[in-house]
Amino acid sequence: MRRSPGLSLLALLAVTALPWGTGWAADPALLAQARGLFKPLPKVMESPENPVTPEKVALGRLLFFETRVSVDGTVGCVRCHQVSLAATDALPKSVGALGRLNPRNAPTVLNAAQEFVEHWRGDRKSVEDQATQALVGPPSFGNPDYASAMAKLAAIPGYPELFAKAFPNEKEPVTPENWGKAIGAYERTLVTPSPFDAYLEGDATALSPAQEAGLGEFVQTGCPACHNGVGIGGSMYQKFGLIEDYWKATGSQEIDKGRFDVTKNPADTYIFKVPSLRNVARTPPYFHDGSVATLPEAVRIMARVQLGRTLTDAQVAHIVTFLESLTGTLPSTFREIPDLPAAGFHPVPGK
Amino acid sequence: MRRSPGLSLLALLAVTALPWGTGWAADPALLAQARGLFKPLPKVMESPENPVTPEKVALGRLLFFETRVSVDGTVGCVRCHQVSLAATDALPKSVGALGRLNPRNAPTVLNAAQEFVEHWRGDRKSVEDQATQALVGPPSFGNPDYASAMAKLAAIPGYPELFAKAFPNEKEPVTPENWGKAIGAYERTLVTPSPFDAYLEGDATALSPAQEAGLGEFVQTGCPACHNGVGIGGSMYQKFGLIEDYWKATGSQEIDKGRFDVTKNPADTYIFKVPSLRNVARTPPYFHDGSVATLPEAVRIMARVQLGRTLTDAQVAHIVTFLESLTGTLPSTFREIPDLPAAGFHPVPGK
């Protein structure tokens, strides 16, 4: 995590000028307010439908980095969720199997399991569901059907045994559902605690004064109406463009009707899931279509089209500085890549 | 590294039956012979043309995992050289930018810098040369020219500063040559010491008895005529198919004339670089066209088409067991993925 070595003159002035600012000391009222709006990350994002076990997590970690199950052998979860880019791919829209373009920007999988639904339009109900459906998504893994995907997986020596361990008492454990459950269990451990979590847990000095000032600006501007809870987002749907048409502000190439295309309910037109802001400073470009390249510009647009507010450069900068406190520490099980089974696995005497 | 917990009956019989075998104790004569044929890995694979500095290595490590410089934003060195697969991609022939198929199998970059030339046909003179040319290789990064690649790189905030640090006293350090030098310097640190290195350094018990027996078989069969030195290969050219046409044994889909297509010298027909066998147990499929799926089959074919020998199943198994002792330990700077710069980098007051 990067922390500010000091304050610029501008930020310092802002801190002293803002009503909630107390200079270098943390503001107890702001902390209390923040604790009402936001929640720190859990250690593991549990689900009653897919209890997290060490065996599932170990298998899911391998499957996350596995590319051999895709139709052309080039796509794994890791294609769009690169470790080096906070589990995104830095593309406006991801490119999957056979070079196919995805319809929307790939969200990070970090902390994603705690969101109320997955994908921009909520058409994946959980990380498990997302992982399973990705196997046959044409611009994702691109397999023509689940059976061919499972046949490839089962043919890699090592995996059938690991599935049997992760899903004991199942006669044929190599299934698309268990693929999703194993990857889902792994993703439920991909939690990235940040300075903001330490702050919410009571360490009022975990945020720099500039970050604390930015939090105040974030709250005052009205952002937590949608960006709240554990994910600072990821807990509700909202119309993109409450005040103005979003595509005019973002310069989007096409108009995406959002959840309407899933439900066909006119009330769902331009409705998208409110994205989590965790690690947002490390996941450009922004919005469902990756139409905006930088975080300051994204903040400016959001204030305008959602809240009807025109922020000053200083206000934008403060909010961005706060958002950087949401950049968390990667778990070592994500930072470090495992060896996949069966690269060279073969039965030999004496081994 | 996997080590055998014990010996199968077959391997045990073989150890006691072979002339160089001394049962469970190491054979000093075999060790002396091996030390004449092979050399342990250095700590760093130095080059006078590109001295390895910490600044170059740090930059090159980032660039290795960087996908944003490719023509479609999906290809980095890591596309074909995945950490999880011993720096290969498990494909017969790699798929690069815009889904383009490469003409040959991607060799691992681990320990590659010590080879006398790079690529199967020796048409890249060093790892630096390989990394630079990859920028414009159509089935690699796919950029139309070096200028557009460098423009993308220079536009990512953070890189110009890192290039300036790695190449001080250069006015415009963001060049294709320095891209190659930085990645080359990083790859010169990608050394994977194995049990066989410990053995060569004098720890005669570093190999299991089965591995030692396999080494004897490997030597007796004649493999070190080509597979010798630091890389156990990677130090000479050789005709593939000295005794028989290789494509008949491998079932290759097409006949690759090898280095002939580079030099147009008829003497170079079917000439390829002898590949290093380091980490070979983790880098299927095998040969320049990835035409053979398993290591036992590759060993069997090599003995036949290069040496005119038909090995028994037990002999093949012994050699494979020895080859597994060449599986080394990944450096933590490869196992662990770095954060790339400028995901969300933007100048803000106070940061």
Can you describe this structure?
The structure is a homodimer of 351-residue chains. The first copy, chain A, has 15 helices and two strands. In chain A, 36% of the residues lie in helices and 2% in strands. The first copy, chain A, is mainly alpha-helical and 351 residues long. Chain A has helices spanning 9-17, 28-37, 54-64, 77-80, 127-134, 146-154, 159-166, 176-187, 195-200, 209-221, 246-250, 260-263, 295-307, 313-323, 332-335, and strands at 237-239, 271-273. In chain A, strands 1-2 form a two-stranded antiparallel ribbon. Chains A and B meet through α1 and α14 of A and α1 and α14 of B.
Characteristic key phrases:
homodimer, globular, disordered N terminus, 351 residues, 15 helices, disordered C terminus
Give the chain pair forming the largest contact, with residue counts. A-B, 60 and 60 residues
Number of beta-strand segments of chain A: 2
The spatial strand order of the largest sheet of chain A comes to 1-2
Compute the separation of the termini of chain A in Å. 44 Å
What is the string of helix and strand elements of chain A?
HHHHHHHHHHEHHEHHH
Helix-and-strand structural type of chain A: mainly alpha
Tally of individual helices of chain A: 15
Largest sheet of chain A: 2 strands, antiparallel
Oligomer description:
homodimer
Low-confidence regions of chain A: 1-24, 344-351
Proportion of residues in helical segments of chain A: 25-40%
Strand content of chain A: under 5%
Radius of gyration of chain A: 22 Å
Globally, the shape of chain A reads globular
